[in-house]
Design brief:
78% of the residues lie in helices and 0% in strands. By secondary structure, it is an all-alpha fold. α3 runs antiparallel to α4.
Length: 73
């Protein structure tokens, strides 16, 4: 799961980002979302690369990708 899913709530992420980078705050969230996107794209690509028998992982990671992508728009 992505970084945002592991930490569970947006409030926790913002609090951690402000503690680590008080001058950055919300822009730090964008960086975290980009890490999630990279992870989800890698997981989507793996389905074809590893020749999985079904596309369950692809569909699951695609839904997570779309969720995070919508936050960046």
């Amino acid at each position: 799961m992505g970084i945002t899913k592991c930490i569970q709530t947006k409030e926790n992420i913002i609090r951690m980002a402000k503690a680590a980078f008080p001058e950055r705050g919300i822009p730090e969230m964008r960086r975290i979302y980009w890490y999630d996107i990279l992870l989800y794209l890698t997981m989507m690509t793996e389905v074809t690369y590893r020749e999985y028998e079904d596309d369950g992982q692809y569909q699951w990671s695609k839904s997570l990708f779309e969720e995070v992508w919508s936050l960046l728009r």
